[in-house]
């Protein structure tokens, strides 16, 4: 009997699913069912008993792809009647997998508890903050490191080198002695950057990977990690780098069950350090590898497939110096026997100039809509090399004139929004960043920012003349700040000023528009980043001048010069009613009924200089000949673009397209001179793209919503960032140090849990928490926190032998959402199972309402553990670390099925209200909720609460 996981698969897909042992290379062309094959292969491993879910690692290229594949795994399992629990499956990006294991084995790394992972923006800010140490001053020729003329280009350029050096594991020590000035200087910059990174308890994505590789090489952690994994699968393998190759090889070392999946034709990320050689050399590096090709495209019209496949085969991919070819020998084809309607599926737009090209494009979209060929503008995607205004402007202007909405969030146009620049203008006004107080604004970047703010101030003065609520508010704040003496301190931050602005027009009106509200929310997040990086807890007479210069001349100058993208809703990334305008890179992995590809006359430059500089110190020689890289990269880039189209592919240009497009461009019918009657007979139905299920936690969602639906709407739904951190230093310090103790116990090193080692871990955590923007802690409180930890260890040393897990992920997939959480400790003894949650407090009196909340939380955790592991906890325990006596510290609850059911039913009800956006405030929240909330002025202005209720 055929296994259900093989149903509806073609022969090649079935082979890929059932070939489980040893190294496997799955070459998957566009639209060939790659994700379906990965999903079925994973289910097959579990259903056949070859591995438990937590013994499988499935790496994806993006977090979004990880969420998508997780949802498809669950839906496929249900459809096929497979009842396996998939919650333990390790699915995520390679960075995410590294982070997960580093969290477990962090005590074997240089990182402290609560380390911060820098994303692209915060990594740039980190370098900006430490610019003088890492990069240094300009040389005699006015250049940083002898290469870059501006601070922004120096930051971007230096980070590209640092990331590449880290990921390719370049011999930095040897490079530091190079006779070449730049090689020597960039090696010094890398060393300084790395030293500061760990000193600040921070890590970037590149170092996250090298640190995990070190763990895999560790005699304690390495065998433990690799021994826990039976199968490793890696998607988009053509876009991996050297350190990622080493990681997955070591992860799969105990079984050699490594399956890599990808398409060398879609290798796009050389500029991020990826190398196509990993997938092309896989058969050579694994002589026993099974190579399977998926070349049947189920996505696109036959004519589209034929056009881009012939084009891709039109150049020479052979390696004439020996070694593997630069492309696997393959042809993409449509399914045998399928009937395809006869209409112009591939044609061109050739405008006489940019305006004419844009008009023809808009006319095409209007025709498709008016004829009912497409149901919604979102079925059309315009793909460009870049979506910045100089590249996309003619198209977008034409769509505007035709009355067709468009969506283009990644044009780095955040600072072009009125609500953003008006808020910056208000900040500049009250902080007095005008005239002489701007410092040196002759530099181009600062000058651009100053001019943009001046324009916004001029508009503000015209639209809101004095008197008005806005001018009164600005005058009041300016007066408070201007009157600060040298020793004066005011409990105010830049973010506080923005929150006050939301209570008056025009901001009050803008808050009714979700897109504008989200842009303002992004501003509060940026200001929070500023406050943390530059450590301005409040404004004072002493720091206001420095704060003003740092905020505008450094922070906003950096962001304004580089540009940042507008908010994208992860739950609605392709909003209906809008033509989708994006870069080709953004479109990777997506598909649209109608795809229009521009930038055919734009020169595509490949990043060859970094490889040339670092080559002598890299771990392996250069793979592709430098004189062929540009040709290869431009073919791969547009191959991705062309293969996104399902029903219609349109190539568009103003100038003569580059010569390499001749095989696909020449002879195409030109819009509007195509067979419109054949097109009009078509109708492409819109399939809703369902977003991945969201996660909801007890403390982060349920309790926040129950405290105040408005707070939930603003801080959780719209993503405003509170002006002040709500993290409790004391509780974190106790919790993190006890966790460190448990990590040692789980490693079988309980003998190392001495007073000296406890103090060492405690001080380590204290030092790193002190660098974060958290509430202050007095020396007396610090002593008390250490006492909490010592009392716990003294009272529970014997009990610790029962510890089986600490900081346990207890996420559980439900029909409509994911219930997420983490249990502090799970203990087992002679068949019993205890779930513990630590509270860095004294035990409250019996009957205290807070106990009901904590008990409800334990019931939720108990439900998840039971559903995931099929094992009902025997005891639910609260441990009050503030009690020196163990009998007082331990508060036990028996497992009561009816209470657990009630807790989960209540959780479901609250999540349903959140998902339906029921944020109405029926009853005023408790006094403390409003008293400490940034939105109190806003809620008073909107009539949600009265000033008396807020006081």
Strand portion: 5-15%
Percent of residues in helices:
40-55%
Tally of DSSP helical segments: 40
Please give the order of strands in the largest beta sheet: 3-2-6-7-1-8
Count of distinct strands: 24
Structural class: alpha/beta
| CATH architecture term of the largest domain | 3-Layer(aba) Sandwich
| Domains, number | 6
Termini separation: 72 Å
Overview of the structural elements:
- The chain contains 40 helices and 24 strands.
- Strand 6 (about 230-235), helix 12 and strand 7 form a beta-alpha-beta unit.
- Helices cover about 45% and strands about 10% of the residues.
- Helix 5 (about 120-130) crosses helix 7 (about 150-165) and helix 32 packs parallel to helix 34 (about 780-795).
- The protein folds into six domains: about 5-105 and about 210-295, 3-Layer(aba) Sandwich (Rossmann fold); about 115-200; about 345-410 and about 570-680, Rossmann fold; about 415-560, no CATH class; about 695-715 and about 800-920, Lambda Exonuclease, Chain A (Alpha-Beta Complex); about 725-795, no CATH class.
- The protein is α/β, with parallel strands linked by helices and about 950 residues long.
- It has a six-stranded parallel beta sheet with strand order 3-2-6-7-1-8, with helices on both faces. Strands 9-16-15-10-14-11 form a six-stranded parallel beta sheet, sandwiched between helices.
């Amino acid at each position: 009997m055929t296994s259900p996981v093989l149903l509806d698969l073609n022969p090649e897909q079935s082979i890929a699913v059932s070939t489980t042992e040893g190294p496997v290379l799955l070459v998957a062309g566009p639209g060939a069912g790659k994700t379906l094959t990965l999903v079925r292969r994973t289910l097959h491993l579990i259903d056949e008993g070859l591995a438990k879910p937590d013994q499988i690692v499935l790496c994806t290229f993006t977090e979004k792809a990880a969420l998508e594949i997780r949802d498809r795994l669950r839906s496929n399992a249900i459809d096929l009647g497979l009842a396996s629990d998939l919650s333990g499956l390790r699915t995520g990006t390679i960075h995410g997998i590294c982070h997960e294991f580093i969290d477990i084995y962090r005590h074997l790394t240089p990182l402290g508890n609560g380390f911060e992972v820098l994303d692209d923006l915060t990594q740039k800010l980190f370098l900006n903050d430490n610019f003088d140490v890492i990069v240094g001053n300009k040389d005699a020729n006015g250049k940083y490191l002898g290469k870059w003329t501006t601070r922004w280009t120096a930051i971007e350029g230096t980070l590209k080198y640092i990331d590449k050096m880290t990921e390719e594991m370049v011999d930095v020590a040897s490079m530091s002695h190079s006779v070449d000035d730049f090689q020597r200087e960039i090696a010094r910059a890398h060393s300084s950057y790395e030293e500061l990174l760990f000193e600040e308890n921070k890590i970037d994505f590149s170092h996250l990977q090298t640190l995990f590789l070190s763990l895999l090489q560790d005699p304690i952690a390495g065998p433990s990690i690799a021994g826990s994994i039976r199968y490793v699968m890696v998607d988009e393998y053509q876009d991996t780098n050297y350190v990622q190759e080493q990681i997955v090889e070591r992860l799969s070392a105990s079984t050699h069950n490594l399956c890599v999946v990808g398409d060398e034709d879609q290798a796009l990320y050389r500029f991020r350090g990826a190398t196509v050689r990993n997938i092309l050399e896989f058969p050579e590096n694994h002589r026993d590898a099974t190579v399977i090709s998926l070349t049947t495209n189920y996505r696109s019209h036959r004519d589209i497939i034929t056009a881009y496949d012939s084009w891709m085969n039109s150049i020479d991919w052979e390696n004439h110096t020996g070694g593997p070819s630069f492309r696997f020998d393959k042809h993409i084809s449509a399914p045998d026997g399928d009937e395809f309607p006869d209409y112009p599926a591939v044609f061109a737009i050739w405008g006489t100039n940019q305006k004419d090209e844009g008009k023809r494009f808009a006319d095409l979209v209007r025709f498709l809509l008016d004829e009912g060929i497409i149901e919604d503008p979102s079925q059309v995607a315009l793909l460009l090399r870049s979506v910045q205004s100089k590249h996309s402007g003619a198209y977008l202007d034409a769509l505007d004139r035709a009355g067709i909405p468009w969506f283009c969030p990644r044009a780095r146009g955040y600072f072009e929004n009125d609500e953003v620049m008006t808020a910056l203008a208000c900040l500049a006004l009250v902080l007095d960043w005008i005239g002489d107080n701007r410092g040196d604004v002759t530099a181009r970047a600062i000058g651009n920012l100053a001019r943009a703010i001046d324009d916004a101030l001029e508009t503000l003065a015209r639209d809101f003349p004095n008197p008005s609520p806005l001018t009164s508010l600005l005058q009041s704040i300016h007066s408070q700040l201007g009157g600060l003496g040298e020793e004066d301190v005011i409990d105010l931050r830049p973010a506080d000023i923005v929150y006050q602005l939301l209570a008056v027009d025009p901001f009050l009106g803008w808050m009714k528009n979700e897109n504008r509200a989200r842009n303002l929310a992004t501003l509060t997040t940026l200001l929070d980043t500023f406050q943390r990086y530059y450590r301005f807890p409040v404004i004072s007479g002493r720091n206001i001048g420095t704060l003003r210069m740092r905020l505008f001349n450094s922070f906003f100058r950096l962001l304004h010069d580089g540009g940042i993208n507008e908010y994208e809703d992860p739950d609605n990334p392709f909003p209906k009613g809008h033509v989708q305008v994006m870069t080709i890179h953004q479109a990777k992995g997506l598909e649209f009924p109608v795809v229009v590809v521009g930038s055919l006359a734009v020169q595509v430059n490949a990043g060859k200089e970094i490889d040339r500089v670092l080559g002598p110190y890299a771990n392996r020689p250069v793979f592709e000949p430098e004189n062929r890289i540009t040709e290869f990269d431009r073919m791969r880039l547009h191959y991705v673009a062309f293969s996104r189209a399902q029903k219609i592919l349109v190539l568009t240009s103003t100038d003569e397209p580059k010569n390499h497009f001749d095989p696909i461009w020449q002879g195409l019918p030109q819009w509007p001179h195509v067979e419109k009657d054949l097109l009009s007979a078509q109708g492409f139905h819109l399939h809703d793209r369902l977003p991945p299920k969201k996660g909801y936690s007890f403390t982060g969602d349920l309790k926040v919503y129950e405290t105040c639906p408005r707070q939930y709407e603003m801080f959780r739904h719209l993503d405003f960032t509170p002006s002040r951190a709500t993290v409790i230093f004391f509780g974190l310090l106790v919790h993190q140090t006890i966790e460190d103790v448990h990590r040692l116990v789980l490693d079988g090193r309980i003998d190392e849990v001495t007073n000296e080692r406890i103090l060492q871990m405690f001080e380590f955590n204290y030092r790193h928490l002190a660098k974060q923007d958290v509430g202050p802690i007095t020396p007396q409180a610090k002593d008390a926190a250490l006492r909490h930890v010592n009392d716990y260890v003294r009272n529970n040393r014997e009990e610790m032998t029962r510890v089986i897990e600490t900081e346990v992920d207890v996420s559980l997939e439900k029909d409509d959402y994911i219930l997420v959480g983490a249990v502090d400790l799970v203990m087992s003894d002679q068949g019993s199972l205890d779930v513990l949650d630590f509270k860095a407090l004294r035990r409250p009196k019996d009957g205290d309402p807070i106990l009901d909340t904590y008990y409800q939380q334990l019931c939720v955790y108990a439900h998840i553990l039971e559903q995931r592991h099929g094992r009902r906890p025997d005891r639910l325990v609260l441990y009050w670390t503030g009690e020196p006596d163990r009998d007082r510290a331990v508060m036990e609850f028996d497992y009561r099925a009816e209470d657990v059911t009630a807790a989960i039913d209540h959780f479901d009800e609250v999540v349903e209200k959140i998902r339906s956006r029921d944020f109405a405030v029926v009853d005023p929240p408790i006094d403390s909720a409003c008293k400490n909330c940034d939105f109190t002025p806003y809620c008073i202005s909107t009539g949600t609460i009265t000033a008396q209720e807020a006081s």
